[in-house]
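Example 3.2
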Amino acid sequence: MYNILICDDEKDIVNALKIYLNDADYQLMEAYDGLEALELVKNNEIHLVLMDIMMPNMDGIQAMVKIREHSNVPIILLTAKSEDADKVLGLTVGADDYITKPFQPMEVSARVKSQLRRYMQLGGGNIQKGVLKVGGIWLDDKEKNVLLDGEEVALTPTEFEILRLLMQHPGQVFSPKEIYQRIWNDLPYGSENTVAVHIRHLREKLEINPAEPRYIKVVWGQGYKCEKL
């Protein structure tokens, strides 16, 4: 799965790009100015950035220069037709490509795929298709195995399916009923206790201190989530 950051101060543009990039292989993140984008790149494994140029607090050019101090992640600038000088400047100081507004969905998809392919071929990332990564946890859906800090962890099939569901949607909260319906494909009668037991077993296998989990957390009154790291 590829983590893609969309940064634009106009929420309608962010939402449109999320629709264009609605793909099971993409985990989409949002930022609304350059400062937010910097924090997300700093604290997450990002594989591609879509960055608007004209934004408050810190514009896209400034943010890109800061990102380039420590990362070679592909950056596609989002530009207006009137920003030709900024396009040239952006490409000069580190942008990989640009897309001119208004966007064509097929163009957005094609440029994103092209930059991701180039990045992976050049060794910029190490995410394989079917592999999920959150912090020190690696889940290989093809081989059906899980590594924690490089060491294989033995999970039951049900534990594996629950972990995969949570890792596919980092930060998203799932109620016990939702988890039960997705994993057991059954009506969620008595689901809370059943799911809680499996979550406890997962924590015992994956957390250094299950009482203070780093990865699998409870959102009281709502459910469980896999923390974004």
